[in-house]
Amino acid sequence: MTFKLTPIAISLVLSLGLFGCNNDNNNQTQAEVTLPATPIIDMGVLNYIDPMIGTAASGHTFPGAVVPRGMVQLSPDTFKGTNTDTETGQNPWHSASGYWDASDYVAGDVLATDLNIYGFSHTHLSGTGATDLGDILVLPYSDDANRENNAFDKATENASPGYYSVVLNNGNIKAELTTTTRVGVHRYTYQQGADRKIKLDLAHTLAANNGESLQNRVELVDEYTIRGRRVSTGWFQGQDIFFYAQFNQPIAHALIARDGGEAMDMQMGAVYGSINSPNKEQITYLDFGKGDQPIEMRVALSPVDWDGAQKNLAAETPTYNFANVKANAELAWAKELATVQVKGGSDAEKTNFYTAMYHAMIAPVEYQDVDGRYRDLLGSVRQADGYKNYSVYSTWDTFRAVHPLLTITNPQHATDLANDLIRKSQETGLLPKWEGYGEETGTMIGYPATAIIGDAVVKGLDVNAKDALEAAKKSAYYRPYDFPQIPDHTLQAVMAGQLSYYERDKCVGLPNWNSVSYALEFSYYDWTIAQMAKVAGDDAAYKEFNDRAYWSLNHWDKDAGFFVPVKLNSCEKEFASDVFNPYSSDAYWYTEGNAWQWQWTFMQDIDKLTEVMGGTEGFNTKLNDLFTADANGGENHQDMTGFIGQYIHGNEPSHHVIYLYNRTNESWKTQEYLDRVYKEFYKPTPDGIIGNEDVGQMSAWYIMSAMGFYQVTPTDPTYTIGRPIFDEVKIKLPTGDFTITADNNSSDNKYVKSVLINGKPLNVFNSFEHSEIKAGGTLHFVMTADKSQAMAARLN
């Protein structure tokens, strides 16, 4: 690997002490040393990461500092999400990550002023459609009039991997943020001679989902240290987090305001907010007096207790050295991104690609203390022994591309995550669905974790097939009386609709909430369970779940040409073709979409789907109808974005559909529509992600697609070709490199003329197997601008 001495690389060399350093007062001195002979990571890749991508429109990403899989995401909160602001165009939905780039709404350009920051909090979600976290808010200020919020100018913002900075207008305070896995590090530089003050707010929450602080405790341990606990509710009900914070300067004076009361002097060693008398609101105001030194603050989090937070602080940031922490964060990102190297393509395409890799590596997060302790989903403290506990699983989104991508680029991590899901089922009773910071929300439908662990099993990762099967069966057999240990609110959300589906003659009862989507997804997940059973050698389970995989065909209406709701206790169709409206996105029948998108969710047997749609010709016609349908038909759900006809790239059920053209006589349309999606829906701008990033799924789709292939059906270890963006992609695998090359590749040459996998022609439907990647090898494309020369699908 070539070492490029970029500004970031120079910063790394200096801060890691390769030229020597002195940590006193953060002053570094240069000394002559011999550079190490070990390879130095190429830091230049970080220049292609822009954390601002996705912070506008409905991308819902955050721009703050984070390391790969870090429990701390230290980022500015610019909008609480409690009401709609007509002047900026913000609404509660936009507060999902705590940050929303409103500059276009305010003044029509990115240099707009008077945008507000409420402070910098330590936990955030990347790209979700729901809101929570925003724990432990910190705001520097000089004047008491500016301790609620402050304005900033977009021109002063700087966001890069592991680092964020901005200048707060009132007081001209420069705020800088960086992180380790469990510690957020702040550096605030005040004007010469100004008062140096910091607000620490435990009541702050990102409130779009009616979240609130339930109880808080805080203690001024000594003149350099403060610790506390925050319990809150919202989307994550009963979230419990501890912190331990230290400062490089002594606190001259501390005030505390409790539950809306007047601020009063804070006494050293006193605990405010006892268990018997909790405070919902605890805001401390810390005064460090006037001085020349910046205030550096280290805030460690723990899911277990104060002692755990203190240990995390001591282990990960034992000294005050902001530059060193920043450099280590940058190095962590460079190491992660080194697994995939690209050549060719434009700077914009490289920025899209590596920023997508960055977004796809933020979560799931490592959610345990340095000593291995963590809380399970029932609140019990456990000790990890040889494994790591992870959190923030948006499984309905990420089973489609995030986890399949990891089986290629980081198979060990893919293994760890699959085993973590299985272990959570063993600990609490059910596989997680949408779990965050130790709390199960039950959001979205079905039991999609089965597709994640199923994919790991069939690809031969180190996952016990019998354990995976047993975990999956518990979710598939769900009955509420079998799980008395799980809170009622969780169970109601986790499996809503499932009971009626399996107890009413194999059809969803009463065309109830999201009934068609439930039926289709249950059938697919049951198919993934059947594949696990096959690997585990359980013939009876295979037969049972493979049979269940076809029950959703009862919803197929040949006359309507769509999957439709059905009546209670029978499979008689509720809606005839003359009254059924496939454009209706009413959530009563479908989840975040309509019949146009959901007709393609029968992923488990696309041969069968082709048959019911009228064979290859009918299947081809249905695809063409999808992409040419009226994009404005019906009323759309807020998650329906990125339209090409009624294909919607901004939401997950459509993500595999373009690749289905590889099963038709017009396989060249796969490349044509992919090229359009690349150019229209992924851009290196704040509004450059067409829908919610969804914890890496939008990005993982782009990464895999840009490399030239995609897995249509997770748990079927088969990939089909697409339209590669780069001339060369090299994936560093444990067993050797897998290299993808594309000859004659350009913006105009979007069609695939020929492809070889390890020197051999592809399988049927322009596909190849995971085993052909796993051992290392080559995938070679030849591209053309001539549609008539495009490679045809092998349909037999």
Automatic annotation (TrEMBL):
Pfam families for this protein: Glyco_hydro_92, Glyco_hydro_92N
Sequence ranges assigned to domain Glycosyl hydrolase family in this UniProt record: 308-784
Keyword match Calcium: no
InterPro entries: 6-hairpin_glycosidase_sf (IPR008928), GH-type_carb-bd (IPR014718), GH92_a_mannosidase_put (IPR005887), GH92_N (IPR041371), Glyco_hydro_92 (IPR012939), PNGase (IPR050883)
EC number(s) per entry: 3.2.1.-
Chain coiled-coil ranges: none
Ranges where the Glycosyl hydrolase family 92 N-terminal domain occurs: 48-302
Keyword annotations of the record: Glycosidase, Hydrolase, Signal
GO molecular function: hydrolase activity, acting on glycosyl bonds
Signal peptide residues on this chain, from the entry's feature table: 1-20
Gene3D superfamilies from the UniProt entry: 2.70.98.10, alpha-1,2-mannosidase, alpha-1,2-mannosidases domains, GH92 mannosidase domain
Matches recorded under PANTHER family: PEPTIDE N-GLYCANASE PNGASE -RELATED, SECRETED PROTEIN
Protein name: GH92 family glycosyl hydrolase
Protein species of origin: Photobacterium piscicola
